[in-house]
Amino acid sequence: MTVRTAPGADALAFLRERLVAQNALSGLVALALAFGVGALLILSMGVNPIEACAVLFQASLGSTNGLAETAIRTVPLALAGIGIALSFRAGVFNVGAEGQIFIGGIATAFVGVQLAGAPSAIVLPAMAAAAMLAGAFWSSIAGVLKLRFGADELITTIMLNYVAIHFVSYLLHGPLQAPGSPLAQTERLARELRLPILVPTTRLHAGILLVILVTVAAQVWLWLSVGGFRLRSVGHNPRAARSAGINVTGVTLLAFVLCGALSGLAGFSEVAGVHRRMIENLSPGFGYTAIIVALLGRTSPLGVLMAATLFAALQIGSSTMESALGVPGALIAMIQALVVLFLIGQGALFTAIGHLLRRRTAPETQR
Amino acid sequence: MAATLPPTNVQPPAVSMSGIRIAFGKVVANDAVDLEVRPGEIHALLGENGAGKTTLMRALSGLLQPDAGAIRLNGQPVVIRDPQTAQDLGIGMVHQHFMLIETMTVAENMSLGLPRERAGGRVFFPDFDRVAREVDALGRRHDLQVDASARVGSLTVAGQQRVEILKALHRGARVLILDEPTAVLSPQESLRLFAVVRSLAEEGTAIIFISHKLHEVMAVTDRITVLRRGKVAGCLTTAETSEGEIARLMVGAVTSRPRRNTTPRGETGTVLRLRGAGLTDERGLRQLDGIDLEIGRSEILGVAGVDGNGQSELAEVVVGLQRLSDGSIELDGADMTGASPAVRIARGVAHVPEDRHRTALVPDMSVADNAVIEMAGWRRFARAGLRRGRHIAEFARELVQDYDVRPGDIRQPVGSLSGGNQQKLVMGRALTRDPKLIVAVQPARGLDFGATAFVHGRLLDSRSGGAAIMLISAEMDELVALCDRIVVMYRGMIIGEQTGPDYDIAALGLMMAGRAA
Amino acid sequence: MMSILTDPVFAGFLSASVRLSMPILLAALGGVFAERSGVLNVGLEGMMLAGCFAGFMLTFLSGQLSVGLAAAMVVGGLVGLLLGCFAITLRANQVVVGIAINLLVAGTTAFLFRLAFRAGAETPRITPFKPLDFGPLADIPVLGPLLFSHDILTYAALGLVLLSWVVLCRSTIGLTVSAVGEHPVAATTLGLYVIRTRYLAVMASGVLAGLGGAFLSISATGLFLDNMTAGRGYIALAILILGRRHPVGIVAASLLFGAAEALQLRAQLMPTGVPLQALIVLPYALTLVVLAGFASRSGAPASLGQPLPRTGIR
């Protein structure tokens, strides 16, 4: 039995496609709602939410240094976020960016220390390449487990995160520990093996240029290239993609590789741009925040960059807000999670209201 | 058969539905529908796909609420809020897609949601033994034997259907709705089902028999209500009518049988050759076994068989979605046993899959994207890895025009098109490449007459153009009208073959039931 | 041989294996309820953390362990309700909702903890449950540390396993839950209440996971730390698969993981030459092996993780 879709349904589906799914509007509404909840919590503590907001953004956006710090924080969130977004587009729930960042970081430091003394024009790219390769390798473990054994990547990537973090900890306490150092860290990278500082007196490094490059490239690739088209097709309907001659296994593996490579690159920029060596606490959960960033950015690279910038500003300002007004910085973590809940709740709610308006959907199409 | 009818003036009708209206948004599925079924009567509900038969019965079984109209059971007005109420009122429905939990045993399935009084007062811990005894007794009485301790998933389709009927009877059904019960049965199994249905009717159960197969309806029912586009087209007494009259009511005009394949084959030469093709699935079961097959240029080969005898697998190995476990496939004399789907597409294989939504199209993507999805990397549509938007749009616009896909907006998501228009797009995509081989699986399933005629016409055009066509269908009418040759599949093997145009349909039916000619 | 069996380090290892397996056992048991009903519960981590925090706070405020215990279960159940709203009623992607809830609970507990106890203040502590005294029974080799060295919560947890087994595998409720998870439309035609059943299953899931989380704060340590559950909710998801979503299988799988964790704690006392990190990752690596070995979806309810159809369900 075929049931024709009602014209009203078409219009609604269209609205949802254009206004909610593809437009940033739903993201803005979710943000507004999450901030609203945050404001209420701040109010309940006896603090003026507008003042809190002002303090927060003054700290992150109100000065050269604040802006620089926000930009620095944007780098790992955006790189990992774009990687995750591309994964999601292919229907892969890769939650392993956190571990891939660590693996990328240790690879960067390893190559940097081993090749110290060689011309930096060769070593720096080699470090980046090693980070991307290592991240991609780590991510593809989950890919192979999924494709070969049918293991759900959600759980395998989470497990691989723990394994990666402890593996790196072992290396930092053992073989790769800087000689004579009491701390679990590698040797400091030579000056010429660090990413150049863009604005003197700040810590802003060239990683932000890398982000812009990656964003543009990913945006073009996803929407205008044959590869991006195949990736999206597989994400929407793997059966149809396979039937149309698309190598679904290859595309799925590619999604794992891309996410791993970009997350590895995030690790590279943290090591070569910020810490100048590999440390045990390289990432305070960038890989997890990047998941929210990817969702808020509607899994489109440009959107991810914007979402990453916003979250970076929030995170940078939160500690000032805590010290100045006594509002715990953990509030920002709550707001970030609420954004996602409002985002998915909203999409689902919109669909539900659509169905209510039509009062009833057509019965399941039967063959 | 009319003689077995009880006198109508004694009892009120078992079921009386009047003025039923059910709308989904702006689509009216049922409009002022009246239906009256007497106790002990086998009443056919007949109509094309999409005529509103299943919708009407879902209302009777409490799965949805009518917008208007009244339902009476044995003369009493009732409101059927939910399936539980329907059960309590003695209405049982055997759905086309069985409502069984395959991982559970028959007895466990029977125990689910059983009201306390029928469960022997046991609320917390079900009494499977008691249920099993009751099922055995019922089964013996109605010739519906099943093993109550067997897992439902391990039963044959016919066995599962017996469980469904028993489940309804066990819950005290006095009105039994059978939704296309023979769609999944072999002719012999169907005959056995008819005997059961008749004996149930003789005991006073009212039977509503949903079908679109005229000969079955003529053979087994007492009266017929015909639905057309959501309205009652007529109510007939079976003994006083003819297949022709019913068919006219169903379609509302003179029936157009599928356009017949009359022109003789012009060209010859083998396009597709399968040698000893076999397929073993991951559970170790033989899905295909020793298939030898050839299709020539300008030939339509029909593949007949009851659903699930390897036809889908045959299509999948030919288009490359599954690799053969043994044997070989040649296209135009060149081996392509190990070729990927992409390579086969490039070499001229086109696929019209069985399941439009799931296998053929990406509903969330646009008409244009779907039109070129198989050719996305071809030089015509891509340069240096980037897609050539203008060429794609041009091609899609042409396709939409040539194949009359409506509405013609190529940026619209395919999911918002009607089934018929989706199928036109799939056909167009497959045929505009002038493929050497077309594998079409149930291409007309679920389509209305106009769309069906269109699809058949295009297949015949491709045949004239020299293509080899493998047409897999469960509709004998379709195969007989279109095919130059028909093979019959049974349990993964080809057990018989006939060459047209004059087919012995009875013999084909016997082969479908596993009896080699 | 006897000397090993009576060795205090070995006895401590056995006892610790049981103790350390309890939180993940309870969380995984909760997961069984949700997953059998067809809801993929990625939010176990958040439910555990919520229970961990609520148990600690309410014990701290009231001075009563029982109050804390009740609070942990209630709060866990409420997080389950939240997951249900999104996963069942709004039909959102169950993985995304689960992850979002985990992040939300992590943020919220840290926020509230900071509100309650300003930074720099002394770490708040409560007196946790004490092991029950079984007298000489506790000195039996192997069995003593395994069975007779625990607090009341552990025995209650084992009782819950038994209860869950009866409910899920022997009763009408379990049959209903499985039917709803396998084929929600069929369950509806049989007169079952699909939506209600799923909600109750997810909330039961939250209650059990909350209890598992409370184990960490009010039984094992008497402390609360930010993100104290540290991924145990995700391990519970892996245990679900290893234990085939069956209460008995879950017990075996949790003990395996508890033993791995206990071994790693002992190894810090006994220098072995194996890097410490290798032991720490043992449970995680084991999970990966398990996932590769057992196809992760085999035996899963047919409708697991799928949103309900929009029609024909009640």
UniProtKB/TrEMBL annotation, chain A:
It comes from the Bacteria. GO terms for molecular function: transmembrane transporter activity. Keywords: Cell membrane, Membrane, Transmembrane, Transmembrane helix. GO terms for cellular component: plasma membrane. It is found in: Cell membrane. The keyword Transcription does not apply. It is a multi-pass membrane protein. Pfam families: BPD_transp_2. InterPro entries: ABC_transp_permease. The chain crosses the membrane at residues 24-50, 70-88, 95-116, 122-142, 204-224, 244-266, 286-313, 325-353. PANTHER family: ABC TRANSPORTER, PERMEASE PROTEIN, GUANOSINE ABC TRANSPORTER PERMEASE PROTEIN NUPP. This is Nucleoside ABC transporter membrane protein. It comes from Tropicimonas sediminicola.
From TrEMBL, chain B:
Residues 15-254, 272-516 form the ABC transporter domain. It is a peripheral membrane protein. InterPro entries: AAA+_ATPase (IPR003593), ABC_carbohydrate_import_ATPase (IPR050107), ABC_transporter-like_ATP-bd (IPR003439), ABC_transporter-like_CS (IPR017871), P-loop_NTPase (IPR027417). Gene3D superfamilies: P-loop containing nucleotide triphosphate hydrolases. The keyword Acyltransferase does not apply. SUPFAM superfamilies: P-loop containing nucleoside triphosphate hydrolases. GO terms for molecular function: ATP binding; ATP hydrolysis activity. Its main location: membrane. Keywords: ATP-binding, Cell membrane, Membrane, Nucleotide-binding, Repeat, Sugar transport, Translocase, Transport. It holds the Pfam family ABC_tran. It is found in: Cell membrane. One of its GO terms (cellular component) is plasma membrane. PANTHER family: CARBOHYDRATE TRANSPORT ATP-BINDING PROTEIN MG119-RELATED, GALACTOFURANOSE TRANSPORTER ATP-BINDING PROTEIN YTFR. This is Nucleoside ABC transporter ATP-binding protein. It comes from Tropicimonas sediminicola. The lineage of its organism: Bacteria, Pseudomonadati, Pseudomonadota, Alphaproteobacteria, Rhodobacterales.
From TrEMBL, chain C:
One of its GO terms (molecular function) is transmembrane transporter activity. The keyword Cell membrane applies. GO terms for cellular component: plasma membrane. It is a multi-pass membrane protein. Keywords: Cell membrane, Membrane, Transmembrane, Transmembrane helix. The chain crosses the membrane at residues 12-32, 39-61, 67-88, 95-117, 152-168, 201-225, 246-264, 276-295. Its main location: membrane. It is found in: Cell membrane. This is Nucleoside ABC transporter membrane protein. It comes from Tropicimonas sediminicola.
